[in-house]
Amino acid sequence: KESAPGPGKEADGRAVGRVKGAAVVMSEPKSPTPTPGDTYKGWLFKWTNYIKGYQRRWFVLSNGLLSYYRTQAEMGHTCRGTINLATANIAVEDSCNFVISNGGAQTYHLKASSEVERQRWITALELAKAKAVQMQAESDDSGDDFPAVSPNSGQGGDCRNTEIQSTLRTLNSKVEDLATCNDLIVKHGSALQRSLSELEGLRVAVDMGEKVKQVTERATLFRITSNAMINACRDFLSMAQSHSKRWQKALQTEREQRIRLEETLEQLAKQHNHLERAFRGATVLPPSFRGVSGKADASDEDDDNEFFDAMEEPFDELSLASNPESPQPLELEPVRQRRTRIPDKPNYYLNLWSIMKNCIGKELSKIPMPVNFNEPLSMLQRLSEDLEYYELLDKAAKSHSSLEQMCYVAAFTVSSYSTTVHRTGKPFNPLLGETFELDRHRECGYRSLCEQVSHHPPAAAHHAFSEKGWTLRQEITLASKFRGKYLSIMPLGSIQCIFEKSNNHYSWKKVTTTVHNIIVGKLWIDQSGEIDVVNHKTGDRCHLKFAPYSYFSRDVPRKVTGVVTDKDGKAHYVLSGTWDEKMEFSKIMQSSKGENGTEGKQRTVYQTLKAKEIWRKNPLPEGAENMYYFSSLALTLNEPEEGVAPTDSRRRPDQRLMEEGHWDEANAEKQRLEEKQRSTRREREREAVKAASAHPDTYQALWFEKIDDPVSGETLHIYKGGYWEAKEQGNWDMCPDVF
């Protein structure tokens, strides 16, 4: 280990780009000119100790961190030290030497090969430090930055809006770079002006050489900073011009589409008028109308029928089918337009600590909580939110490779946590026998049903199936403990996904959710732990690691990493990203053994292809901060629907009153429902005693039955059928009186 000539020692060797102790080797482009936001790298001489003196080291400046290696080859696996510029002090000693220190255990004494090279490094370091300080100031204690918006939201308007927002953020970043460069130019320009003024006042020729050297040095620094400013301006202008052309083209396309739509609507109105007149004046109905009442609409027509021949007068306009510019035949049962807003959350103050201080160490489900700490959704609806990124399972169903399919399933498991990042409200505990259906068959191709199958311990069963060839089922029991400063929620039970075409059967469990700052400060959510996604048919496995948030960690907050291996343990894919923003996956081309880690285990070094994005979080709807930070899907979950079961969460009165802002009434209704549930349980226990039952609580779920799964070896509730048939018939006589 090297040592600096000061009180601090350099950090021990650490691997970079690791996935569970494995390093991912990727090439980085060289950047000889310090440009704001770019990586800057090169050779510098670093003081090691009094015996070896200065030694040549490879330094890399990236994302506000200055790291160094003994050689360029070490970049893939061993970092010799890293210093965070946000808290570092940069000092110039002479024409080639400078010092970087964080005021603690790290101090780098560095020497450049020339004065110009030193000025390049100083400029790059000052730019990076300014940007790192700004980014640190903008983040709060919990690190809750809004995630990047999704480019693949599934709707054209959302995609364009997302692209615009992303571009505006990029342009804003460039403007901030320009502002940083401007501050540096003002700083170095003032210094240069002072030197010139001092030069003019010199009278003794002996002092001239030293002052000329100082002016030359400051002029060089000013020139380098000016070049950085020019480069930043060029980048900004190029990007602005590029996106300006794209937006103009997109706007023109939108205008043309609107004109075509208006023409089509006008044509439809004229055709409807002609059809109405012809139908009223017709003496003989065409075959397609026979046996149909006069009130029959177009939904009774067969697409192949030519009923225009029965009209008494010809059309002046072309039919839709003959018009290439017209859209496809309209759906006669349009997809339901779901709501996009709920009433804003009232600003009612209630001291959480006054309620929670007597509950330390208790089970959360047994703590009577007012609705003030809830969100207007039940736990069954929160389970259904796991399907927000169902497209990942659709893509997995189409995969021909089980290993690639595993990547999509792993990304799906991570995506289910993305809705929780700002959701500090507690969902309603479902009542025993409560259900929730999510019928998105027409829009998304799937149907979902949840039922509360046990009250103590609280357990919910979930079943979803898709016409795309996958089935998702889970049974979750929540165990929770209040620890004083934070609340831990441990989901027990498992989740399973079965693909019809390949018969691949996957299972996994959930990680621990922690709510921090219960006593004081802003509440924030963290997910931590490890998940093993297992394909029971092939033996493939993906080990995912959710890193707990740490203020002192250099890692990205909410980081998730994973490795996909086959039944023999050979690694094929690496996954990395964050659970609140996006995930990427890379195909492994080669692996090799590296150095021993901190725990004595030998690390594996993976060489991969370029990473590809596999999932990205959808942007939150406008005004989400006033609507409990609900996603677009969550906003629709409690929307009233006709035909659902009387036990459906949408019909729960306390939850409905809370959503509408009547919290006092909601609290009273919540107490009534809880007392009713206790009375029902006592009555059920009395009947069980009369029947001499070995189990006092003999409650049987209505739509699910408990079985031993032969594939995973687990015992869980499986959907036994009948719900959707009962809904179609409108027969809910078998449902219990829950509300």
UniProtKB/TrEMBL annotation:
Belongs to the OSBP family. It is found in: Membrane. It comes from the Eukaryota. Residues 244-278 form a coiled coil. It holds the Pfam family Oxysterol_BP. It is a peripheral membrane protein. Residues 648-689 have a biased composition (Basic and acidic residues). Residues 37-130 form the PH domain. Transmembrane segments: none annotated. This is Oxysterol-binding protein. The lineage of its organism: Eukaryota, Metazoa, Chordata, Craniata, Vertebrata. GO terms for cellular component: cytosol; perinuclear endoplasmic reticulum; plasma membrane. SMART domains: PH (SM00233). Residues 139-161, 640-692 are annotated as: Disordered. Keywords: Coiled coil, Lipid transport, Lipid-binding, Membrane, Phosphoprotein, Transport. One of its GO terms (molecular function) is sterol binding. GO terms for biological process: lipid transport. Its main location: membrane.
